[in-house]
Specification:
By secondary structure, the chain is of the alpha/beta class. It has helices at 6-64, 82-92, 113-124, 151-162, 221-243, 266-272, 282-293; strands at 67-72, 99-102, 130-133, 177-178, 192-196, 199-203, 248-253, 298-303, 316-318, 321-325, 330-335, 343-345. The N and C termini lie far apart (101 Å). Residues 1-29 form the signal peptide.
Length: 350
């Protein structure tokens, strides 16, 4: 029988040992992956369960008693985001169900993707559910390098960045139903609605600069198309409110429809006999008032219009229609199902 050299035996044993070590390492890695996958799934499931619990708690609070929401008015009068940061920080310590942010930039600021993205990141990092409401300064006055308007292109970019999903921004999400879910109006993602308790809330794209009605010759394509979309949207909202027997509808917009200034009775008939001029809100105002008249609950319109000098935010009512202009600051509204008016401005904390 041939003899095997001891060196060859030693080399063979080393290869066997190395193979065993590599096999053991592979098994340990596989076990780690197998153990890590459930851990990641558990973390995701825990986060999802927490979100569901928080949503159920908000709904229970709305059913059992009152709650509060906040509105951050247009904060970019001077092109400075410090006020927005301050308002977001202030909302963190308050028991608000959600926060509506009116506008993301000032008219004098750049209409750049970089600025849009920075503001989006700022709002996304907020702790509360944040509902973004576009303002006219976000897109209507934007121009390209040739000095020509690119308002529609910039509006579409705002839609892509701020309204890509059926939920709010912020670390705590709130489910939304967007008008873009309807194939006919898939561009209008900024129009969204959600419910808390027996109140339906909704955003409507109505820019403060006369609803972006242009007096130039030719077709007002953006205005006219959005008018059709908003008409469908408002009819849909009130149909939902009547079907679900809700107590109120709250509409958020940047522009003030001036619904409480709309004449009634003979004055209304006389006004219709006169050419309406270029009131970009006229048709939408008439529609809201008509829908409100047929709705048994309350209708509160909240806008981010500037207040007159020395004026303070206040909710005014005429019949079942209420109006509130926020101005540039941050305010909160208490919702009390047992209260006489249902809605009341929250008393600022000292």
């Amino acid at each position: 029988m041939p003899r095997v050299r001891s060196g060859a035996i030693l080399q063979s044993r080393r290869r066997t040992l190395l193979g065993a070590v590599l096999l053991g390492s592979a098994l340990l890695a596989a076990c780690g992956i197998a153990a890590g996958a459930p851990a990641k799934r558990n973390a995701r499931e825990a986060a999802k369960e927490k979100e569901v619990r928080e949503k159920e708690a908000r709904e229970k609070e709305a059913r059992d008693g009152g709650y509060r929401f906040a509105v951050i008015g247009h904060s970019f009068v001077d092109g400075d985001e410090a006020r927005l940061k301050q308002s977001i920080a202030a909302s963190d310590d308050k028991p608000t169900a959600f926060v509506v942010v009116a506008g993301i930039k000032g008219a004098g600021e750049a209409c750049s993707d970089k600025l849009y993205q920075r503001r989006r990141n700022l709002i996304e990092e907020a702790p509360k559910p944040m509902v973004v409401l576009p303002a006219g300064s976000d897109w209507t006055e934007c121009r390209n390098t040739a000095g020509r308007t690119n308002a529609i292109e910039r509006l579409n970019r705002v839609r892509e960045l701020f309204f890509p999903e059926a939920s709010t921004l912020g670390t705590h999400k709130l489910a939304l139903t967007r008008q873009s879910m309807s194939p006919r109006f898939r561009s209008y993602a900024e129009n969204a609605h959600w419910s808390v308790g027996k109140v339906l809330y909704a955003t409507v794209n109505l820019p403060a600069n006369n609803n972006h009605y242009l007096t130039d010759a030719g077709r007002n394509s953006e205005y006219e198309d959005r008018l059709v979309a908003n008409r469908f949207w408002l009819n849909r909202l009130f149909a939902i409110a009547r079907r679900d027997k809700l107590e109120a509808v709250v509409l958020f917009s940047e522009g003030d429809l001036k619904a409480l200034s709309q004449p009634t009775g003979l004055r209304a008939l006389l006004r219709r006999a006169v050419p309406p001029g270029h009131d970009g809100f006229a048709e939408t105002r008439r529609l809201v008032l008509s829908l409100a008249q047929k709705f048994p609950g309350k209708v509160l319109m909240v806008d981010a219009n500037r207040l007159e000098k020395g004026a303070h935010p206040a909710i005014e009512w005429r019949d079942n229609v209420g109006h509130l202009s926020t101005g540039p600051g941050e305010l909160e509204v208490d919702v009390d199902p047992a209260g006489k008016t249902l809605f009341a401005l929250a008393v600022p904390e000292k």
